[in-house]
Write a structure and sequence with these properties.
Low-confidence stretches: none
Oligomer: single chain
Bound molecules: flavin-adenine dinucleotide
Shape: globular
Order of helices and strands: EHEEHEHHEEHEHEEHEEEEHEEEEHEEEH
Largest sheet: 9 strands, mixed
CATH architecture of one domain: 3-Layer(bba) Sandwich
Strand content: 25-35%
CATH superfamily of one domain: FAD/NAD(P)-binding domain
Number of strands: 20
Mean pLDDT: 94
Structural class: alpha/beta
Length: about 425
């Protein structure tokens, strides 16, 4: 174990105890370093709490794509659109949307695919190893997911996507309606077929993933403290000071910013201006259903996604969860209850008769940069400050690979992949 000078509070401070910060903190502590993990709230209660739990290794195409730009704009203000802009957030989001359109140009989209692919190549194995190392392998189920359709156009789109992904090594196979009904009798008769993606998976409780990582940190001598960081200052290359909301300060040799959708002001306090915003997403989670007989099967044994409805249903240990929608509404507008009603309608259409009594609802903040790549690496002008945020729709999927990369970088070693595409300075020319 490395010991810190008594004038410092920790060797490494990680800001943000979501899945990204907790994964990095746990890996750094396992490597023998004295780590303090800070969060304004409790561990894993940000976006990492209520996500779909999908280990989405098939998602190689950034949302900033020519298709999305062509197809979605006319729906942006419609109440039941899967991609929605809250009128009250129109002005603040405009610069982000302009960059999004810019990032969707074919050449930058192609660069985005290459950059996502570089992370996704090892993401599944890194996550599986991470969960095994923190004694949480039982939370992870690597039996793929289904992408189902209810119409001819849905079928064409789903098969075209599967074909487009195959050259990248994403394996899938078509499944007939009758095979789907056989395997999943609860699915609606309106479901006409699907594609089984073989190498994806899910976790049965995303929040439990975060708490397992935090427990592992404590086991390796790390500390967790509840406080809100207001500012980061890197005084020298050996010491960074954090100013806390309560007026206190903390000092560490190295600081890693992993504050998800809230990372923007922390990076700005060091002079890095990132166009980070949030794509809000919603879920409803059904209450556990009482077993009515010994032959009862859970409604689903793997996630079922609908590309037509832009939702995914995941069997969680606490009940079935339906997740979806992207809403541009910033960090402060209240949730829109019509989004929950929309998810309920999709749920009833795909799983008729699902019992929504006692279902819980939640909205969370995906941390998203306009090009849909995270920021990863050392802060270019502050060698003792490190950045890992902006994982958009893929933070859970990419937590293991992010933690492996950031552990190397924070310890001053070579990153296992080239980090230029994820540089915080990539937006500087704007
Ligand atoms: C509806 C929905 C569905 C999703 N589904 C999936 C999925 O199926 N698969 C997948 O891979 N990803 C999914 N995601 C994305 C994934 O949840 C996120 O990318 C991931 O949780 C981001 O993790 P994070 O640690 O960066 O952020 P967060 O989990 O938001 O954590 C950030 C933490 O930083 C803390 N913090 C913020 N500011 C400060 C401060 N100033 N001082 C101290 N602490 C601070 C917050 O309290 C918070 O705990 C989904 C997201 C949503 C919303």
């Amino acid at each position: 174990m490395t010991h810190v000078s008594h004038s410092l509070d920790a060797e490494v401070i990680v800001i943000g105890a979501g899945v990204i910060g907790a994964a990095c903190a746990s890996r750094l502590a396992q490597a023998g370093h004295e780590v303090m993990l800070l969060d304004a709230g409790e561990v894993g209660m940000g976006a990492s709490f209520g996500n779909a739990g999908h280990i989405a290794t098939e998602q190689l195409f950034p949302l900033a794509s020519p298709e999305v730009v062509r197809g979605s704009w006319r729906y942006l203000l419609a109440a039941d659109s899967p991609l929605r802009l809250r009128l009250g957030y129109l002005l603040p989001i405009l610069p982000w949307l302009a960059r999004f359109v810019w990032a969707a140009r074919p050449r930058s989209f192609a660069r985005g695919v290459a950059a996502l692919l570089a992370l996704q190549e090892s993401a599944r194995d890194d996550l599986a190893q991470l969960l095994e190392d923190v004694d949480a392998a039982q939370l992870l189920h690597l039996n793929g997911h289904m992408d189902v359709w209810e119409s001819e156009s849905g079928r064409n789109a789903a098969l075209a996507l599967a074909r487009r992904l195959r050259p990248y090594g994403i394996e899938s196979m078509p499944v007939s309606a009758s095979a789907l009904q056989e395997a999943t009798p609860a699915l609606s008769r309106g479901v006409q077929g699907g594609v089984h993606y073989l190498d994806s998976g899910h976790v049965e409780d995303p929040h439990a993933v975060c708490t397992a990582l935090a427990q592992d940190l404590l086991k390796h001598g790390g500390r967790i403290q509840q406080c809100r960081v207001e500012q980061v200052q890197a005084m020298t290359s050996h010491c960074a000071t954090l100013t806390l909301q309560d007026g206190g300060t903390l000092r560490a040799q190295r600081v890693l910013i992993c504050a998800g959708a809230w990372s923007k002001p922390l990076a700005a306090s060091l002079g890095y201006h990132v166009p980070l915003d949030t794509e809000r997403g919603y879920h409803i989670t059904l209450a556990p259903q009482p077993a009515s007989g010994s032959g009862d099967r859970p409604a689903l044994n793997r996630p079922v996604a609908s590309g037509e409805r832009k939702v995914i249903m995941t069997p969680m240990s606490m009940g079935l969860r339906m997740t979806g929608t992207v809403e541009f509404g910033g960090l402060h507008l209240p949730p829109d209850p019509r989004r929950y009603a929309l998810l309920q309608r999709h749920l009833q259409a795909l799983l008729p008769g699902a019992n929504t009594d006692g279902a819980s609802t939640w909205m969370g903040f995906r941390p998203s940069l306009p090009d849909h790549l995270p920021v990863l690496g050392v802060a270019p002008r502050h060698p003792n400050v490190f950045l890992a945020f902006g994982h958009q729709h893929l933070g859970l999927t990419l937590a293991g690979v992010t933690a492996r990369i950031m552990t190397e970088v924070v310890l001053g070693r070579r990153s296992p992949i080239e980090l230029a595409p994820y540089s915080v300075d990539r937006f500087a020319s704007w």
